[in-house]
Amino acid sequence: MKITSIEIKQYLLPLDPPFKAAWDPEPRKNFATTIVYVHTDEGITGIGSGDLMIGFEGHEHLFIGQDPFAIERHAQIIDNIDFHYGRCWPLDLALWDLMGKATGQPVYKLLGGRSNKLLAYASTGEIVSPEERAERALCFVEQGFRAMKIRFHHKDVRDDIKVVETVRKAVGDKLDIMVDANQGWKMPWDVERTWDLKMAYQVAKELEQLNVFWLEEPLPAYQFELMAKLREMIGIRIAGGEMNRRYHDFMEMNKLHALDVYQPDVALAGGITQVKKIADLVQGHGAWFSPHTWTNGIGLLANLHLAAAVSHCPYLEFPYDPPAWTLERRDYIQKERLMINADGYLVVPEKPGLGIELDEESLKRYEIHHVYVGENKKVYI
Question: CA-to-CA distance for 77 and 157, rounded, in angstroms?
């Protein structure tokens, strides 16, 4: 089998009303999606999605004509592109989808098959009043969730803590509660001050009293030594690493014991190939691997396959915060909307590959840009 062509397509879903993401000062009026299609001479196509594939143009020849199963080779080249240009890891996901389809196996079985399901925590995205957040939390309980994540980003952190207090009072011990401090990284236009170690410590001590399951990204993503110090100072678990891009970041964090929970996203940093190595590394040293999944339904599926195959963490992130962030918005290019079962588990599809089924009508409606690269031609549509 050989790779004969690669297609990159862009899609844009208008958001009305806009989505007010806690980590973005600017309300989001559109939801962009990139899909990579890898075609072969045997008629099998792999599909991946995630980042914008910036920097991939001009490197197509490094993959066309190659065996798609040479995944270590391909991952090394994508890593080289990442170093020089951008994050092209959706190609890695498409190759794993292709390998699964070619072998007739779901990807999680190719990766180890430790389990076929994980408990999902409802990962919220908006800043809302304490009362509204508590009401939504009770809806999560009714739907079968056993955990949820609350985003921080009020101007006064005491208002953020009040949200957690109100939710805890409303749900009791029916939900584990995670908190995302959103201090790890910033959007390009965000110039607000981030927390220092003292602030992170004070907040963590308050959250300990509320039995918070973990505190995510309480410090900037590259302050490895300070995260390790914070972790030693408090009893609450510290999570992070969702936007750290390079393997050596995780080697250094692991060496310093900076985190309890490592969250690299296969769609954004490392693909399935590299992130599995990170998961093996950190779990071998007693930490948890629980990937970030806030891209789209395809990114969620890819992270689910890897996490189910290797993770010891009881929970997987499930982006979901209706009415602001719904299954219809998140999975708009897919036929099937991903949802937990009655017991709170997200079950891995048993179809070959990643189990992606695209909605052709939505693809036609929302497509905005299309690049096709074959052995002898490049076409922009």
Answer: 43
Percentage of residues in the chain having pLDDT higher than 70: 98
> 333-364 burial, b if ≥16 CB within 10 A, otherwise e?
bbeeebebeeebbbbbbeebbbbbeeeeebbe
Q: Three-class SS of residue 285?
A: coil
CA distances from 101 to 39, 47, 85, 95 (A): 12, 10, 30, 10
Q: Is the pLDDT of residue 381 over 60?
A: no
Q: Hunting for tokens 């395809």 — which residue is that?
A: 298
Q: How high does pLDDT run on average in the chain?
A: 96
Residues 6+ apart with CB under 8 A from 288: 237, 260, 261, 262, 282, 311, 312, 313
- Reading the block at residue 50, the tokens are 């995630």
Q: What is the largest CA-CA distance in the chain?
A: 63
Q: Are 323 and 126 in contact (CB under 8 A)?
A: no
User: Cα dist. 169→147, 211, 304, 339 in Å?
Assistant: 15, 11, 31, 26
Among residues of the chain, what percentage have pLDDT more than 90? 96
Helix axes 71-84, 90-103, angle to 10 degrees: 170
CA distance 221 to 219: 6
CA distance 100 to 233: 44
Exposed e or buried b for every residue in 1-39, given b needs 16+ CB within 10 A?
A: eebbbbbbbbbebeeeeebbbbbbeeeeeebebbbbbbb
With contact defined as beta carbons under 8 Å apart, do 227 and 260 qualify? no
Q: How far apart are CA 198 and CA 213, in angstroms?
A: 20
pLDDT category of residue 374 using cuts at 50, 70 and 90: confident
Give exposure, 216-235, as e/b (b: 16+ Cβ within 10 Å): bbbbbbebbebbbbbbeebe
pLDDT in tens, 22-48: 999 999 999 999 999 999 999 999 999
Neighbours of 327 (CB within 10 A): 17
Helix (H) or strand (E) holding 288: strand 288-289
Residues 6+ apart with CB under 8 A from 154: 127, 160, 163
Query: Is the model's pLDDT at 168 over the cut of 70?
Result: yes
What's the predicted TM-score (pTM) here? 0.96
Integer Cα distance of 63 and 8 in angstroms: 14
